[in-house]
Structure formats: C-alpha cells, structure tokens
Amino acid sequence: MTEFVDMYLLPLFWILVGIVGILAVVLGGTAYLTLAERKVLGAIQLRKGPNVVGPFGLLQPMADGIKVMCKETILPSKANVVLFIGAPVFTFLLALSAWAVIPFDAGLVLADINVGVLYLLAISSLGVYAIIIAGWASNSKYSLLGGLRSAAQMVSYEVSIGLILVTVLLKTGSLNLSKIVQAQQGGWFAFSILFPMFILFFASALAETNRSPFDLPEGESELVGGFNTEYSAMIFAMFFLGEYANMILMSALTSILFLGGWLSPMDSLAFIPGFVWLALKVALCLFVFLWVRGTLPRYRYDQLMRIGWKFFLPVSLIWVVVVAGVELTMGTLPVGG
Predict the structure, then answer these.
(1) What are phi and psi for residue 105, nearest 5 degrees?
(2) In sequence order, what are the beta bridge partners of 105?
(3) Where are the alpha helices (DSSP H) in 98-140?
(4) How many CB atoms lie within 10 A of CB 281?
(5) CA-to-CA distance for 326 and 332, rounded, in angstroms?
(6) Could you give the CA distance from residue 123 to residue 111 in angstroms, rounded to a whole number?
(7) Which of 308, 301, 159 is nearest to 226 (CA)?
(8) Closest by alpha carbon to 228, among 144, 292, 337?
(9) Which CB contacts under 8 angstroms, 24+ apart, belong to 275-284?
(10) What CA–CA distance (Å, rounded) separates 301 from 306?
C-alpha cells in the first residue's frame, strides 16, 4: 500500500497542486491585467482610469466579473448553439493548457517535456479553429468575416514565429524550454545575433494575440466587433479572458526564449528567486503590449498581410541562414552533434 501511494497517489497529488497553483496565478494575473491596461491607457491619455471600486480601484476586476456573470446570455435564434457556446470555452481551455510546459524556475515546471516548443505551437495553432467556429456558428456575416480575417492573420504570423523558433533551436539544439533558458547563462539571446528575431517575435506575438496595431479581426469600423459580435455576458468574457491569458503566455514565452527566463541579469542579484525575475520580465513585456496599444494606430488589412508575408517571413528566413552560417563557422552548431 505504501508503495502504491508513493508511486501513484503522491505524484498525482503534486500534479494537481501544480495545476491549481498555475490556474490561480494565470487567472489572477488575467483579471488584474485588465485593470493594468485601463490604468496604463489612462496614464497615456492623461486620465486616472478605474479608481473608485476599492482602494486605488483594485477591486474593479471583481466588479467587472460580477457584472458579466449577472448579464443575460443572448443566443442568436439561428446560431448553432453547441458550437456557439463551445468556441469560447475551447479558446479559454487552450489558453490555460499551454501553461503546462512553461518553466517558472529551475525545476519548477508542470511538464518538462523535450518538445515544449512544439507543444506550444500546436496549442496556438488550434486557437484558429475556435475563432473560425465562433464566427461561423453565430450565423452572422460580420462574425464570419471577422473569423476568416483572424484565421488568415494568425496563420500568416505563425509561419514567421516558426522560423524564429528555428533560429533559437540552432543556438540551443533543444526544444525543451528549460534547456533554452539554461543556454542563456552566458548571455541572453535578445542581446546576441538573435536580436532581430527578438523584435520580430514580439511583433508577431502582437499579431498572434490580435492586439493593436494588429487587432484587425475586431475592426469596429468595418466588422462591428469581429468574430465575437454576437456574444454577450459570460461567454463573451471567456473570449476576452482568453485573449489576456494569451498575452501573458506570449510575454512569458518571449522572456524564456530571449530574455533569460528565470535567470537574473547579473550575478550579484542571483539571490532573488528565479520566478520573481520571470514575473518581472513578463510584466515588462506586458507593459510594452499595453504601451503599443495606446500609441500606434491600427493597420489596414492589406498592410497587415503585406508586413507578414513580404517583411517578417523573408527576414526570418534569411536570419535562419545567417544564424546557421555563423554557428557553423564558429563550430558551435549544436544540431546533429
């Protein structure tokens, strides 16, 4: 009996504890990211932002949550109800399941698999289906147009993200996220030959999460809100929260791939726990997400696609060749060794 507990029940218990802990952190961060966005945009526009509900407005996310839960869920009469409700649930579950392979510190990861990067690519690719299904199931032309535009946008920029990840693979020889962080102990990739890829990856992350200036699927002027036009109340909030959870995920991935993950910027600060450094780097990336929204205008759709296919894709493809050539010349190419 003791052997059964040690081999099966105890590991299962710690896995459940890890899942609950990750969900608590991600859901809490997602809720307060909405407040942070309103505060940052308020500061950019010389206004206060939420400051009434609770001290400094800190209870505003709870008030917003209560409000959407109390609203009536309106189902379009000709919508496919199962797919209409299932799409936002699927989006939200995908946003949470991706966190299984994110390392918060050395050894502090739920699933330390050797193909963590491929797992994340697969999860992000599935998000396209949820948006297309949401647009189609609404039985609205505006929603369908928004879903198709979003699918084209996400597919376009995932190609560039894939090539950018190839350059990281050439530097590390591994798709394991923990090993990618450990490979940056001699210097973060953002300050190496991969600096252009760091910039392209962050810009692609903006497009991948449908954030300004790439928030074309939600173009109010031509699509009246995009693929989620017909959604209301809590099922709309699940799309909303899924987008913000994906923002945190892409910021964490940017930090892990290019900013050293849990590594401290200097040895004298190594006494600070690694998960604190990761949290600070994620917060910095999220601030840039919000800063960009408050400063840059939205691209036209043709500009969006032109940037993806005629600039991001060629540059990332050329940089794969450049990085491979440099690593091969220096004798440090890890692949195939």
Answers:
(1) -165, 175
(2) 108
(3) 116-137
(4) 23
(5) 9
(6) 15
(7) 301
(8) 144
(9) 275/104, 275/105, 275/108, 278/104, 278/105, 278/252, 281/251, 281/255, 282/248, 282/251, 282/252, 282/255, 283/251
(10) 9
| Spatial contact of 216 and 298, defined as CB atoms under 8 Å apart | yes
Q: What is the DSSP string of 212-252?
A: TTS-GGG-HHHHTTGGGTT--HHHHHHHHHHHHHHHHHHHH
Q: 67 is written with which tokens?
A: 């409000």
Cis peptide preceding 213, ω within 30 of 0: yes
Tens digit of each residue's pLDDT, the chain (337 residues): 677 666 667 778 878 888 888 888 888 899 899 999 999 999 999 898 888 888 888 999 999 889 988 888 888 888 888 998 888 888 888 888 889 899 998 888 888 888 888 898 888 888 888 888 888 898 888 888 888 888 888 888 888 898 999 999 988 888 899 999 999 888 899 998 999 999 999 999 998 888 888 877 666 566 566 777 888 888 888 888 888 888 999 999 999 999 988 999 888 888 889 899 999 999 999 999 999 988 888 888 888 889 989 999 999 999 999 998 888 887 676 655 4
One-letter amino acid identity for 113? I
Q: Which residues pair with 108 in a beta bridge?
A: 105
Helices (H) and strands (E) in the chain, counts: 13, 0
